[in-house]
Amino acid sequence: xxxxxxxxxxxxxxxxxxxxxxxxxxxxxxxxxxxxxxxxxxxxxxxxxxxxxxxxxxxxxxxxxxxxxxxxxxxxxxxxxxxxxxxxxxxxxxxxxxxxxxxxxxxxxxx
Amino acid sequence: xxxxxxxxxxxxxxxxxxxxxxxxxxxxxxxxxxxxxxxxxxxxxxxxxxxxxxxxxxxxxxxxxxxxxxxxxxxxxxxxxxxxxxxxxxxxxxxxxxxxxxxxxxxxxxxxxxxxxxxxxxx
Lengths: 111, 123
What we know:
The complex is a heterodimer.
Chain A: E1 9-12, E2 18-23, E3 35-40, E4 47-50, E5 64-69, E6 72-77, E7 86-93, E8 100-102, E9 106-110
Chain B: E1 3-7, E2 10-12, E3 18-25, E4 34-39, E5 45-51, E6 58-60, E7 68-73, E8 78-83, E9 92-99, E10 110-113, E11 117-121
Parallel strand pairs in B: 2-11
Antiparallel strand pairs in B: 1-3, 3-8, 4-5, 4-9, 5-6, 7-8, 9-10, 9-11
């Protein structure tokens, strides 16, 4: 099972919006609404930001939003802030024996 | 406040064994599925093994099948990972995480994470 494909890095200025893509196949991202996104600051544990494509857990800022089109899911961060600088990983349920696959990760830099 | 605290990591030789522990607090441990997720140095995330709330079923990644065993003791609010026949590629930070209720799929989504424990497999 191959990892989901994400851009290695995305950057933006404070206040701007950025979008991170997560590309899979019809066996994972495209086939199920079970895409989630995790934020990880350096040396810290990951944090769940989005589940089921577009739902935010309690306490997560509404500046974070998720969507999906075909085999590609997206995480959008609006009103970019310095604290958003981190690595972001998507994940999806997969119909393969792997059950769940993560993305390659995207480093977000706030300029 | 939900807290997950891992322990048991360290340096082990290839072929050796190690047992990781995770103590949970701040929530009803027996009501949640739990999981171990690992992250090799500088790499991405990989789920390792999950266990249902009452230990009724477990799942394992293909990469650890036959070598790692997950278990839990709800009386001690504790999760374990017995790792045998360790390989260099098992070197990683191992995180204990709680599976979000009503995830709708296995192994689910992970809504709380511990800080991790480093396992290094090297001669």
